Amino acid sequence: MGNRTERLLAIRNIISSQKVSSQEELLELLEKKGLNYTQATLSRDLKFLKVNKISDTEKGYIYELPDQHHMPGQELAESYAAQGFVSIQFANKLGVIKTLPGYAPSIAVLIDKVNPFEIVGTLAGDDTILIIPHDNVTEKDVINTLIIIIPELKDKIK
Amino acid sequence: MGNRTERLLAIRNIISSQKVSSQEELLELLEKKGLNYTQATLSRDLKFLKVNKISDTEKGYIYELPDQHHMPGQELAESYAAQGFVSIQFANKLGVIKTLPGYAPSIAVLIDKVNPFEIVGTLAGDDTILIIPHDNVTEKDVINTLIIIIPELKDKIK
DNA sequence: ATCAAATATGAATAACTATTCATCATGGGA
DNA sequence: TCCCATGATGAATAGTTATTCATATTTGAT
User: Fold this and answer.
1) CA nearest to B15, candidates B44, B41, B51
2) Four-point Cα dihedral B29, B33, B36, B41, nearest 10
3) 8 Å CB contact of A75 and B73
4) Which among A55, A72, A75 has CB closest to B52?
5) Is residue B42 pLDDT above 90, yes or no?
6) Rounded distance, CA B70 to CA A68, Å?
7) Does residue B84 share a domain with residue B37?
8) Which domain holds residue A8?
9) pLDDT tens readout for residues A21-51
10) Are residues B83 and B44 in the same domain?
11) Residue ranges of the alpha helices (H) in A33-138?
12) Partner of A35 at 20 to 30 A CA spacing, among A73, A121, B89, B117?
C-alpha cells in the first residue's frame, strides 16, 4: 500500500490529541481509521517521526511528538510569528500565507526549522510565504501542521 | 543497603552528562562507580525519577532527565531567576540562597515545581531562600541539582 | 519497457523494559 | 520485645519495542 504518508499523518494526529502508551495501543487506534499495519512498521514510523516517550503520571509513559520544544528561545519566536501572521489560503495545492510586512522570512524560518514532512518547502517574500505541501497532504493537514508548529495560530485560523 | 539515594543521584549525574540508551548500559556505568544492582531496580529508579526516552540522531533513543523543559514559558522564568540569583551558602546542612530584593519567591517556585528529590523543600522570604536538602545529600549534590534546574547558574556559582 | 537500486513491509525473533512474586530489612505501635 | 506494615531488592517472567531476514513494491536510469 502506498499510504505511508497517510499513516504518518494519522500517527501524529493521534499522538498529539490523546495519551498513547504502547505501540499495540496505537496500532488499534490506526485500525479504527482503516489503517492496518504491524507493530514492526509502527516501531519504524515512530523512529522516523522522532517521537519521544515521556513520563506521565496517569499512564506511566506516553508518546509525545518532538517538534520544537527543547530549543531555548523557541517560544518567543513562536509568539512573534503568531503576531505577524495574517491569513492562509490555498490555491492549486499550494498554501499562501500572508503576514504583516517584513514578517514572512522569520515565520518561514520557523517552519523550515521544524521541517515537517507534510511540507516540502517554503518560499518567503516580504509579506507572503508560499507553502509547498507534499503530495497526498490535504489543506487540513497543512493547517494542523502549522498549528503544531505555532500553537497560537489556532485562534487565528478559520 | 541504604544507598538508594546515592544510586538515584548517580543515575541523574550519569544521564545528564552522557548519552545512555539502555538500562543495561546504565547498569554497567553504575557498576564502575561501585554500585551493583539489577535491571529491575533500575527500571523502578527511572520510573521514579520520571526519566524520559527521547529521540537522538546518534544513538537512536537516549534517556533524558525530565526537569523543566516541556513547559511553555519555562526558559523565560529560568533566565529571570538566574538574573536575580546572588549567592548560595551552606550552614548546618541547610542551603541559603541570597537573591536580589523580591526575587526569592519566584526562584523558590521554580525549584519547587521541579521538586527534585535531593531537596525536601524550600522556604522563601523576600531576598533569601532556605533550601532543605534530604539526608545524605551533599552540598555539591544540591548545587548540581540547582544547576540542572537553572543552567545559567553554572557561571554564577563557585 | 527493463533492470537495478532503493524503499516499504510483515513475520519471526532478538533485545530491552516492566512487573510479579518472594524475601529481607526497617521502623513504628501494642 | 514482638508483630505488623512498609519499603527495597533480585530472580524470574511477562510485556513491549527494535531488528533481521525475506519479499514485494516503487523509482530511476538506460
Assistant:
1) B51
2) -60
3) yes
4) A55
5) yes
6) 10
7) no
8) 4-64
9) 999 999 999 988 888 899 999 999 999 888 9
10) no
11) 39-48, 74-84, 104-114
12) A121
- E-state strands within A1-102: 52-56, 60-64, 85-91, 94-99
Q: What is the pLDDT of residues B79-123, one digit of tens each?
A: 667 777 888 887 767 788 888 777 787 788 778 776 777 787 788
Q: Does A102 touch chain B (CB under 8 A)?
A: no
Whole-number pLDDT of residue A75? 54
| Overall number of domains in chain A | 2
Question: Is the CB of residue B52 inside 7 Å of nucleic acid strand D?
Answer: no
C-alpha cell belonging to residue A152: 497560537
Flag whether A11 is in a domain.
yes
Q: Are B107 and B119 in contact (CB under 8 A)?
A: no
**Beta carbons of B76 and A75 less than 8 Å apart:** yes
User: Does A141 reside within a domain?
Assistant: yes
Q: Which cell goes with A154?
A: 489556532
What is the CATH classification number for the domain harbouring A46? 1.10.10.10
Q: Which of the two residues, B15 and A137, has the higher pLDDT score? A: B15
- Strands (E) across B104-156 are located at 119-124, 128-133
Do the domain assignments include residue A151? yes
